[in-house]
Structures are given as C-alpha cells and as structure tokens.
Specification:
The protein is mainly alpha-helical and about 425 residues long. It has 24 helices and no strands.
Amino acid sequence: MSPLLILAIVFVALTLIGVPLFVSVGLTTALALFLIDIPYTLLAQTGYGSLTPFPLLTIPLFVLAGRLMEVGGMATRMIAIATNLVGAYRGSMGLVTVFACMLFAALSGSGPATTAAIGSVTVPAMRREGYDVPFAAAITASAGALGSLIPPSNLMIIYGLVSETSIPRLFLAGLLPGLLVTILLMITTYIVARRRNYGGNGEPFSWSPFLKAVWDGKWSIGAPVLILGGIYGGVFTPTEAAGVAVFYSLFVGLFIYRELTLQKLIEALRFTALLTGILILLTPTLAFGQLTAFYDVPSAVQQSITSITDNPYLVLILIGVFYIFIGTFMESLAQIVLFTAVFLPLAVSLGIDPVFFGIFTVITCEIGFLTPPLGANLTVAARISGISIERISVAVLPFILAYIIGMLVLILFPDIALWLPNTFYGEAK
C-alpha cells in the first residue's frame, strides 16, 4: 500500500470518528514524517513559524473590532440605514438583511461574526413580519458569508500568507465579486419572498428618513471608509488598519454612541478569543502542506487533472466542485492552508492569476459555510433563530445556487476580480 493511501485512510478515519480537525491533521502529519523518516522537529519549527508572521495579528484585531462595533451600536445603525434605503417592498426585511450584512462585512472580516451581528437583530424582525423562520435564518447565514469575501477578510489574509500573495491586492479584488454575490442574494431573496408573500409592510422609501438614518449612522459608515481608505491610500498596512479599527470602534462605542460598557467589552474580548482560537489549525495544516512537496502531491494532482482536461475554465470548475465537497466537513481556514499548496501551482501553470484564484477559493469556502454538517454560518443562524440546522439546510439551498452562479460568472469573467487591483496597482508581473 502506498504511503499516500495510508495517510488518506488515516486522515479520513480520524475525521469520521469525530477527532478534532487540528488533531487529525497533526497525527496524520506525524505519521507522514515517520514514513519518510523526517525528524518530528519539523512540526515544532512549523508551529513556531506559522504563528509569528506580523499580518496574522490582523485576524483577531478585525474580529475584535467587528464585535465592538456590534455591541457598541454601530451594527444597529447600519441596519437602520439599510431599512430606510430599501423601503416597504416585497421581502424588504430580507433585502435589508443582505444589504446590512454587506455593510458589516466591511468591518468584521468574518462570515460567522457577520451572521451573528446582523442576524441577532433581523431574524426576530423577519419573524414578526411573518417570514418562515428557516427562510429568515437562511437569508442571514448566506448573507453573513459575505464577511469572508468583502474586505477585510480573514480568509484572504490566510490565503495571502500561505500563497505569498499581496493582501491589499486580494482585498481590492474582493470588492466587485462581493457586490456581484450581494446582488444575486438579493434577487434570490426577492423571488422567494414574492412567491411566499413575505414582507411589504411599513413605510415606502422617502429621502427624509433615509438621510436622517445616514446622519445618525455617519460614524458607522465612516468605519469602512477609514479602514479601506487608509489601506489603499497608503496610510497604513492591513495589520495597522485592524488596530485603527479597534481604536475607532472603542472610541465610537464609548464616547459617541455611549453603548459600550465594561461588561460588553469583556464579552467582546471573550468572543474574539473563542473565534480566533481556530488559528490553532495553522500549525499542523502548514506542516502537512509542506509535506505535500516531499510526497510530490502538487505534481501528481497536476498530472491527474491535466490528463482529463487542460482547459482553465473546466479545471477551475473541477477544483470548485472538490472545494465545495471538502467544505462540507472541513473548516475553511484548514481548507485554504491544506489545498492552496496543492492547487495553486496547477492554476498558475494554466495562466490563472494567483489573486483571482484566491477570490475563487474564498467563494467556494463561503459555500462551505452553508453546507452541513460543519456549516459555521448555519450553526450561528440556528443558535440565533432557535431552530435546527437541518431545517435551515433545506431553506438555504436557493442561496447556495446563487453562490454557485456567482462562482461560474467569476470563472467566465475573471476581470470582475482583477480589474480593480490591476487598475490600482498595475498588472502583477
């Protein structure tokens, strides 16, 4: 039996019996080291090296900033802006949820965090308007996944570190695809709501309430302008921007809106610690990724796929199907760390831009947020709505279709992702 087959069997077996993913990867990596007689110190060295890059600080800082903005009153003001902008149309509160998630995604960097922040307000509101609760939860879960596509994005940061791709270019590349997916989600929400006769209550759109909501929420709108404007204006790096975002959210929550208390601050720190604890996956997954080179996995994958087709569009579709399948039971962070080293060399050999491949990877991971049994966003939405993941999993299917359409459009028209970074920074060489 070949070593690769042994490792695959061990990893799948450990995962199926419920062993935590970082332990499964770690044990599989240790076995791989043993089989090719490499010292186990590789794990320790990789573990130290994986947690030392300065840009890694960006993730907990953006998560903390997003949580402070949620509990400090900025999220509710964003929802008020979205509500007054959308007006009383069929499915209006569902559309508000998608739009508000898009706005908050520019603050949090995390899909589950965006789902929690916006869903905790909009799911009860949709329930009061007569929405089917699984559908309301599905809207929140699917729109919350925008937190990983619209910059700043934790998954883009991890991809940038693993692939040595410019993080600012990745952030800029995510803007138009994020807008595209937002539009597709709003269309899906409207079609389903219209068929089921949801919403349409309240006041129609008028400028006066909208402008008042914008004025009341001007500090909330200022956050993404400050963060992204500072990055692309060359004022600070993404890591420094995350630190500025934390300071800004503290200042606004404490002194402008005055809704941030000591108890809420402690809860935000606890939430950040729990959510960023997933970074423990970096040590074993990076070590495992290094081992793929020893086992010549990228070359084997490249030969296997190119023996079927060397058409870049079809190759991306095959990789996308694989990513979506893997995403049903593997955390997105681990998925990016493990498989970027395998598929990126193949993509580059076919002339696919690494920045585009990063955005493509993130979209497939967003679908993973919405597929059981793992489905991080489904778990958060289930907790908010008080119903089972199984019921939400059925209701979320139309939104998964919207993401797949977005992925296919991106494959056919890669300039949607590349136009902004190439215009702003020039084409990568």
